[in-house]
Inverse folding.
């Protein structure tokens, strides 16, 4: 089967985007001080995290809300909470 | 939200939360079932089938009305290497009769139905509300806060899933360690019903479920799964996070590699990808179980770490329902005695300990450790491949006895006899 990119896969999902209310905030200072391996760049199934000019950026709109990054990243590196009620990923299959 | 005090607030409308709310409402208690998604199931994802006997106890013959996909009559364990697959394929008519054994379900449909049952029993379903925090009075949980609003109850049941921020806030559990969780990734792929039935040799509503070990994960601890829905296939990987972090491999690439394996590709080809999801899987078993109760609060389902994976099957939903039954019994008793203290709610732990839930967690207490054995993913699939190649390949050279083939396969893969014996012994004890 032709394989889709992660972005193409996410585009087939249903999301209710909560514009202006990011549910993930990256604390760069903690990342720089405590994280060498940048686990967020490879553990996230939705490729939410990327490195841009040496900083970790979270493209939170495509987040699948699994929470893997909250376990993999150093404590305090992320402020991560579920999106507000009714927002975020909305599974139609599950 | 009302200012009045309820009997119970259940946070999270997955199978655990919906089941608990259903049972409590049936007993006449005033229950609110709060769900952060727009409907129950909208945030939920499973990577395994539903073993139905427990749900049958609380909703007899549920399969006649519930949106189940297929009843599973065929369970397969497959070892993958880069170029081969070896399967243990078990199919039985015994699983094709009510009450059946297991069902494939799609959670967005199934949990929504279960939420409807809770509502019909009298529970107040409140979707679209994210609970931000517990309201605590001294040492006692007395309610929940969502944004500006507050809601109070005698008991709060945390059924808020693998991440359970509520159990963390209550101090029942610390931050999840990476050794105890896995990341599950899944695609749901649409295929016409007749294609599925022909491809998997199924009659009518029969279904099959695969557990897949080996190069599925490129040697990372974990495994794959695939099961048939009515007109789609759920296919995914569950990857142990600690090992993934150690290897520093991109999980999305591991997943693509899995989907492109000829064995998997042959099962999903021609299908149309419909939905891509991910979910955290609590895999620590008893070792990661948080404290399950305190003054005014209980923890059930994935939030309590209730899953078991023994390589042959993965279970979570039936354990979640089992924990909901135990929790409901404890809360109903506490309601009668008007005592919601930790001592009173300890009945939950006792009921859970007397049930199949704790019994099975004890039986498979060694399974999480065994399932981290790297030889399971790196060595044994290759050994099996070499044995079967030796059996079936007819070269121009003389054939060897099975014993010789096996010995050579063991040697070729640098497997020591001691390790083999140790793994057989540990496997027999763990599984």
């Amino acid at each position: 089967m032709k394989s889709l990119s992660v972005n193409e896969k996410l585009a087939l999902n249903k999301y209710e985007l909560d514009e202006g209310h990011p549910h993930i905030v990256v604390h760069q200072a903690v990342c720089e001080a405590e994280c060498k391996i940048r686990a967020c760049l490879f553990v996230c199934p939705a490729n939410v995290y990327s490195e841009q000019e040496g900083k970790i950026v979270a493209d939170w709109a495509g987040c699948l809300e699994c929470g893997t990054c909250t376990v993999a990243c150093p404590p305090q590196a992320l402020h991560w909470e579920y999106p507000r009620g009714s927002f975020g990923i909305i599974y139609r299959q599950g | 939200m009302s200012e009045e005090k309820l009997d119970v607030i259940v946070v999270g409308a997955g199978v655990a939360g919906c089941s608990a709310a259903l049972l409590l409402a049936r007993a006449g208690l005033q229950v609110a079932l709060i769900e952060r998604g727009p409907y129950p199931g909208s945030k939920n994802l499973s990577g395994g089938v539903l073993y139905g006997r427990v749900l049958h106890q609380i909703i007899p013959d549920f399969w006649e009305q519930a949106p189940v996909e297929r009843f599973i009559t065929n369970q397969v364990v497959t070892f993958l290497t880069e170029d081969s697959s070896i399967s243990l394929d078990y199919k039985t008519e015994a699983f094709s009769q009510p009450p059946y054994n297991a069902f494939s379900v799609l959670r967005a449909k199934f949990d929504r139905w279960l939420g409807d049952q809770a509502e019909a029993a009298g529970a107040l379903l409140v979707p679209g509300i994210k609970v931000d925090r517990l309201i605590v009075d001294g040492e006692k949980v007395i309610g929940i806060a969502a944004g500006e609003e507050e809601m109070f109850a005698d008991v709060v049941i945390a059924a808020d899933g693998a991440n359970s921020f509520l159990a963390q806030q209550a101090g029942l559990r610390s931050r999840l360690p990476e050794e105890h969780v896995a990341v599950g990734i899944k695609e749901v792929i649409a295929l016409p019903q007749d294609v599925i039935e022909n491809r998997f040799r199924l009659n009518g509503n029969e279904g099959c479920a695969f557990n897949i070990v080996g190069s599925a994960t490129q040697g990372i601890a974990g495994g794959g799964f695939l099961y048939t829905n009515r007109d789609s296939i759920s296919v995914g990987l569950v990857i142990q996070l600690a090992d993934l972090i150690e290897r520093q491999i991109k999980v999305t690439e591991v997943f693509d590699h899995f989907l492109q394996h000829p064995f998997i590709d042959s099962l999903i080809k021609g299908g149309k990808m419909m939905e891509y999801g991910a979910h955290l899987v609590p895999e620590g078993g008893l070792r990661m179980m948080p404290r399950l109760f305190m003054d005014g609060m209980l923890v059930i389902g994935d939030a309590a770490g209730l899953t078991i994976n023994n390589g042959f099957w993965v279970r979570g939903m039936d354990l979640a329902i089992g924990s909901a039954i135990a929790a409901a019994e404890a809360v109903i008793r506490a309601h009668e005695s008007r005592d919601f203290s930790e001592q009173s709610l300890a009945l939950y732990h006792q009921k859970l300990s007397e049930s199949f839930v704790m019994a099975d967690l004890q039986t498979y207490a060694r399974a999480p450790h065994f399932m981290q054995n790297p030889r399971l993913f790196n060595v044994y699939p290759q050994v099996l491949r070499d044995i079967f190649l030796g059996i079936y390949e007819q070269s121009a050279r003389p054939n060897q006895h099975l014993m010789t083939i096996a010995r050579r396969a063991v040697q070729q893969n640098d497997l020591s006899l001691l390790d083999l014996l140790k793994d057989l012994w540990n496997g027999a004890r763990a599984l």
User: Anything to note?
Assistant: Chain B has a mean pLDDT of 95.
